[in-house]
Design goal:
five-stranded mixed barrel, globular, 9 strands, binds 8-iodo-guanine, 8 helices, alpha/beta, single chain
């Protein structure tokens, strides 16, 4: 008996999700990254909450501060599937595990996904707690969630329509190109210099592989980064993860309001 393909495993997870939540179809998915958890509380009424490990193909959350849970939340007239944790590439569980949540969301009916993350910012004006819309990405992981001769187009990967919607809600939102490093170590100052040289503005350890899988599944994608720290070498201070979580908590209200006003539209 061979293992199910990642796509079959996502179908199995989506079927189990229906059984556990009683919700036949979800409309939009949200993946909450570092610092975004407090925003989840503002989204709307939780219809159901399950542990990721209750679904086929998910393993226990490995990052402190992330609860390994998935919520079904009523946001306006939409049913949102909210992932309160994600699998990071640096956990070494393989790319299929990193994008399993995205594929499960697509199999559950979601036609759009909001990918959020915490990251380092390369602009001095982006103080910790600044949200930045992702306009495009540079995938520095050297890999892809797609296997085989499936040449998926990534033009307008981070939907310009959804970015325009966000700016209607909050005209002050800036945009930037997001670079995913494999991690888990942070970048050296020289690597941040490389990011700048290749046109990147944000440095993180998630999101790009998930976005590729979401496009492969035909979903519309909105990416929002929460700058939790100036990227390595810009502040002269070492990076530490506690700062990161604190900046996220401080920005939670603004993030929650943004998501609450964008998701139903
Ligand atoms: N690669 C990278 N990932 C991050 N995640 C967070 I939160 N901050 C950073 C950062 O400065 N660099």
């Amino acid at each position: 008996m061979t293992d199910p393909s990642p796509y079959d495993l996502a179908q199995q997870a989506a079927a189990r999700l229906v059984e556990l939540t009683g919700i036949a179809q979800h409309d939009i998915a949200l993946v909450l990254g570092s610092g975004w958890l407090p925003a989840a509380e503002m989204l709307g009424e939780t219809t159901a909450e399950i542990a990721t490990t209750d679904l086929p193909g998910f393993s226990a959350a490995a990052v402190a501060g992330h609860s390994g849970k998935i919520r079904s939340v009523r946001v306006g007239d939409r049913q949102a599937l909210v992932f309160l944790s994600r699998t990071h590439y640096y956990e070494g569980k393989g790319v299929a595990a990193v994008v399993h949540g995205v594929r499960t969301a697509a199999a559950a009916g979601c036609r759009a996904i909001v990918l959020t993350n915490g990251c380092g910012g390369l602009k001095e004006t982006w103080t910790p707690g600044t949200p930045v819309l992702i306009s495009d990405h540079i995938n520095l992981t050297g890999t892809s969630p797609i296997v085989g001769a499936n040449f998926v187009d990534l033009t307008d990967l981070y939907s310009s329509r959804l970015r325009a919607l966000c700016r209607e809600v909050d005209p002050s939102l800036d945009e930037g190109v997001y670079c995913q490093f494999p991690g888990p170590h942070y970048e050296t100052p020289a690597e941040i210099g490389m990011v700048r040289a290749i046109g990147g503005h944000l440095a993180g350890m998630s999101t790009t592989l998930e976005a590729i899988a979401a496009r492969e599944a035909g979903m519309e994608i909105l990416g929002i980064s929460l700058v939790t720290n100036l990227a390595a070498g810009m502040s002269g201070e070492p990076l530490n993860h506690d700062e990161v979580l604190e900046a996220g908590r401080a920005a939670a209200t603004r993030m929650g309001e943004l998501l609450t006003r964008v998701v139903p539209r």
